[in-house]
Structure formats: C-alpha cells, structure tokens
Prior knowledge:
By secondary structure, this protein is an alpha/beta fold. It has helices at about 20-35, 55-65, 80-85, 95-105, 115-120, 135-155, and strands at about 5-10, 40-45, 90, 110-115.
Amino acid sequence: MSAPSRKLLVVCLGNICRSPTAEGVLRHLLAEESTDLRIEVDSAGTGDYHLGEPPDLRSQRAAKRRGIDLSGLSARQVRRQDFDEFDLILAMDRRNLADLEAMRPAGSRAEVRLFLEYAGEPGISEVPDPYFGDAGDFDRVLDLVTAASRRLIERLRK
C-alpha cells in the first residue's frame, strides 16, 4: 500500500534557477528511487520577474548533464492558495522565507521552512542563487539540492 500523498512546493525568487532545479531533482529521484511514495512537487517564485519562462538555460544544461530534464517547466509566482494546497513549502533562502511568511494567509495549513534546514543539510541553510554566477555555481546548486532532496525523501518516508 502506498504512503499518503503529500504536496511540496519549492520556492526561490524568480523560479528559473534554484526552485525548478529542486523540482526537477525531486521528481527525478522520486521516479527513479522512490516509486512507492506518492509525492507531488511543484515550484514557484516569490517575484514575478520571469512568469511563463522556462528555467535558465544554464540550469537546464547542468541538470541535463545529470539526466534531469527541466525543459517542460515554466516560471510561476507563489499564489495565496498555495498555502492551502501544499503541505510543505520550502524556500531556498531566508529572503524568500521572509517573503513567504509575509504573504502567508492567516490560518493556512502549509508548513513553511528553509529547504536545506528541513532536509538536514549540515552546516548550510541556504541554496545560493547562481543567476549571476558561472556554470560551477549551477553545478553547486545541483549538488546541494540533490543531497538535500535525498534526505527530504527519507524524512517524508518516515
């Protein structure tokens, strides 16, 4: 029998680098390694800078090198109803966490946390924004998100 379904939303600023990477990694790991879990994953941004755009090409390239396809994703902004539709909303950094808390409707049911802290990443609490960086910064995001996603899946399994 399958575990109960959970809905996760991963959030960064523009929803073109970190959060779609996390969405893609989580979906990939769930499909490849945890088919027994029924977990839905989505991503969004706190800002409206890139609505409808695909993930940054550098994010797509870095993910593709690891067998993860982000090309079907498109940026969207966090909506008020996300706080009731999702069980867990995970921010990539403290700025996004503060923005989420500010827009969170009173009485909403979602648990809102930092992605790396919730997933138990030792010594690091934020996923750095690679947008103004180079290819190595996008690979670093993938490394952090992949390790944390594995721990997150194990935590959700319990």
